[in-house]
Amino acid sequence: MSAHRRKPTTRSRRHPSHRRRPGRTLLVTGCALVALAGGGGWYLYRDLAAGIGSSKALEGAEKSKFGDSNILLMGLDSRRDQNGEKLPAEVLDKLHAGSSDIGGYNANTLILLHVPGDGGRATAFSVPRDDFVDIPGHGKDKIKKAYGLAKEKKQEQLAARGVEDGRELEQEGREAGRAAQIETVRNFLGVPIDHFAELNLAGFYHLADALGGVPVCLNKAVKDTYSGADFPAGPQTLDGRQSLAFVRQRHGLDRGDLDRTKRQQAFLAGATKKLNSAGTFTDPAKLIKLIDVAKQDVVTDEGWDLTAFVKQAKNLSGGRVRFTTLPVERFGRNYGEDINVVDDMKIKRLIAEQIGPMASAAPGTQGATSSPEAAPPPSPSPSAPQDGGGIPCVD
Fold first, then answer.
1. DSSP string covering 233-248
2. Which pTM does this prediction carry?
3. What is the pLDDT of residues 124-136, one digit of tens each?
4. Rounded distance between C-alpha atoms, residue 118 and residue 2, angstroms
């Protein structure tokens, strides 16, 4: 099934006419009054959240037990919108991301967020994008490729059956990509995935702007012409363009991609801190603005009660998320490409130790083997000092 979004009406909620502004103001005011009174005004948010793109990629999937939730966050390195259309040139220029024809559909950001049902501390596991794993129906490859490989295969199958509509090909291909990426991560980590959120490249930009900037902290100044990162040392607040450069930088970092996962974690920590400190969860107008932005860039699984999660997410800020980057045994090469050689069972045991017994360990998994060109394992990353106003400083 394809991802679907509500069919736009002739009078868009995002760009209301002058005549509709009093009505929207009344809606926001009424929503604020109900929320402040502690009433049941969340149905208003539910109506707004329904406009966010949804997917059936998790339909029929096994769920976690005991009220726990495992949420897969997928960041696509795509320069196209949800319908496969090229992003405008002025947007690409702001993103410092090159042409719409590069980037493909690699899932360059993969983070599993485990939220305990008992209200305990959440854990976020970053999966390095070059981990060499089993991709169902394809064989071993970099984990980031599962999405794009499945998308391309599905589109080729549809084209062979005579489907020519570009939007249908894009949406059906993306649904296949989502399902394949989720299955690959689920098998690799050995735990159920209850929900997912997919964010395109422009999403980091729009999210940071909607929040009024995201606070981060750097141990040292950096300058990278590839990503556009140019930041001084110390705590600072990044706008949308700077945030995208921050999470994309890998050149000039001691551990390359593995240090980039630290950047992604720092961005999430800063964003959750800003969400709470800015009063977004208690300010209906701000929350509506954030949801409105999400409609542009986010796809989630169908049936996910986002309003309930928004209330739960208040507990994820203020240092209540522990970030972990999954271990890499050594570096290697596969058909001329750099890969991360990993031990599947070691990773499953690590996750089980941190979040409880494995609910659905994938059968028959084996540790990956390295090529003759394998490099020594990377040295562990030191703990980041906490001197950035409650935000961990990163290199």
1. SEEEEE-HHHHHHHHH
2. 0.77
3. 999 999 999 999 9
4. 35
